[in-house]
């Protein structure tokens, strides 16, 4: 029998918590017989759920970190919140990973402060896998570090390459630096310095990646500072959302088109599904001592389920340990 | 009779120059009887065209700036290139504006060095009008200044607000700062400082704009540094291109869908046309002494035509003068 993988799950995270989280957790448990969950949250939520689901235990917590709170302050003062307790379970070895769809800032702060940074990691990084129709694209940092030093991007490249190989299954990831031209000398002073360091220290580095190259999957991994990465990620999501709405509008613009729209609806729905961020269930935080995925606040049950599956995959692949080796090589 | 507006046009700019430029120029002259063009380029190109078109004069130039050349060096050494000569015609008052689909860097350098910066302008800025299906959105800087000081963004906001009012026709433009959260304290140290300055000095400033807000047209004007703006613009274009391809793929995925696709084709083509960057014909450079639009290297004749029309609109609206007033107010 395979060894069980135990994950801590934040029952309170997300706009429609706890209902959405419970539904996703139940699905994940059903699909993965080697998975065990420690569900963190208020007694009235976690105890009945644990009682009625195999391989689930309840971890009662008494505090809650709301979306608007100052992350570091909240983590320091609310020691019995579901986010802090979930991270502590990982720190203490009672769980191998943590999933939450709660406040990104609070999860970042708790994972960094409570689980702790992996040795040699200057800044943990938030990563996303873009579901491009061409091929999946790993991008980081997407918001953990608004202000970066060029050295951080070297580590982001090292950490994201491990993730691309071990979790996304890209055998030889090509790393690109997000920049405003393909030539070496292009870009801000910061980007030029990053280019130099990446060339010297990251064998996977393959050059500059322009905005238009991202979804074309010209690179498997795109590294950037957390400000540009976050703007870029939200721009991609926003552009896709506006365009899908416009396509839908164009499809019902005339009676003939309306008839045609019925015929193409299946294909479009399938495409929208493939392009959905739900596939990966959230953004992994790399560079901390444990598997950690932060789901979108508006996560659906499917997104929660997939987020839990991916957290388990990170834990089973010993990705945090491989990352710690990669940054000191 | 209305007064003629004279524009200098670079016959050599663009991937398919001079053919595409000549076709667009001929169309523009036909559509606008108050327009006169000074066509800059090699004798064998500009003289036959000028001879066969009303209101067009030839300005023979003997040098050419290629796409890969170092912009500032090329502008300094190739004084008789079509780009430098076109800008000099504006400087000398023989033309009110300049249009080129040539090297963006060379056009930026020539316009700044030869026409000169408007008094009080720290850095001229490259602007774009995003053809969002919701409403047009003005964004700047999109690549002229990879490294910015927060003070520059104050001027970008002032200049772009004038452009939004006078050229795009938005009576009361709302300005947003591209950032990674809606709250005031969000973002990089740079973004936070920009937020402070914009709040204090730009009455049109309405808060932070996230990546997902851009195409939703939550703001009429989006200001950012030229690195983030360029990445963002190319990301929007790339996302739209990849998605349209994927939608097309989905539409022919089954025989029934194929039939439906025929019926919806008209609507989609119309939508793609509306979302095309061709509509505005290029990126205006604001903060120099004269109207100046830099077209895309891959401009079509329609894009060249529209770029010339917009350059004329900028000149007629005395936008460069209004901008000079706005930055010193």
TrEMBL record, chains A, B:
Alphabetized Pfam families for the sequence: FA_synthesis
Enzyme Commission number: 2.3.1.274
Localization terms from the record: Cytoplasm
Record keywords, A-Z: Acyltransferase, Cytoplasm, Lipid biosynthesis, Lipid metabolism, Phospholipid biosynthesis, Phospholipid metabolism, Transferase
Cellular component GO terms, alphabetical: cytoplasm
Function: Catalyzes the reversible formation of acyl-phosphate (acyl-PO(4)) from acyl-[acyl-carrier-protein] (acyl-ACP). This enzyme utilizes acyl-ACP as fatty acyl donor, but not acyl-CoA.
Name the record gives this protein: Phosphate acyltransferase
């Amino acid at each position: 029998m395979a060894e069980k993988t135990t994950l801590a799950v934040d029952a309170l995270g997300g706009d429609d918590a706890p209902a959405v989280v419970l539904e996703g957790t139940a699905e994940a448990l059903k699909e993965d017989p080697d998975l065990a969950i420690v569900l963190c949250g208020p007694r009235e939520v976690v105890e009945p759920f644990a009682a009625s689901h195999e391989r689930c235990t309840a971890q009662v917590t008494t505090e809650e970190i709301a979306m608007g709170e100052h992350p570091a302050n909240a983590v320091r003062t609310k020691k019995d919140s579901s986010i802090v307790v979930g991270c502590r379970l990982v720190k203490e070895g009672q769980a191998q990973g943590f999933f939450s769809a709660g406040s990104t800032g609070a999860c970042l702060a708790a994972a960094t402060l409570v689980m702790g940074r992996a040795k040699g990691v200057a800044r943990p990084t938030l990563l996303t896998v873009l579901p491009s129709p061409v091929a999946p694209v790993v991008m980081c940092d997407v918001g953990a570090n608004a202000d970066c030093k060029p050295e951080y991007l070297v580590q982001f490249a090292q950490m994201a390459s491990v993730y691309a190989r071990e979790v996304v299954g890209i055998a030889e990831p090509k790393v690109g630096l997000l920049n405003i031209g393909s030539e070496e000398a292009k870009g801000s002073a910061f980007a030029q310095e990053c280019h130099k360091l990446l060339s010297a220290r990251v064998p996977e580095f393959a050059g500059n990646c322009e905005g238009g190259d991202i979804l074309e999957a010209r690179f498997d991994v795109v590294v950037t500072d957390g400000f540009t990465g976050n703007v870029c990620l939200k721009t991609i999501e926003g552009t896709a959302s506006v365009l899908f709405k416009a396509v839908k509008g164009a499809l019902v613009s005339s009676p003939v088109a309306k008839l045609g729209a019925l015929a193409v609806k299946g294909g479009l729905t399938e495409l929208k599904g493939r392009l959905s961020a739900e596939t990966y269930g959230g953004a992994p935080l790399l560079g901390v001592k444990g598997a950690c995925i932060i789901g979108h606040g508006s996560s659906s049950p499917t997104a929660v389920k997939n987020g839990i599956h991916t957290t388990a995959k990170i834990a089973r692949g010993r990705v945090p340990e491989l990352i710690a080796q990669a940054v000191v090589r």
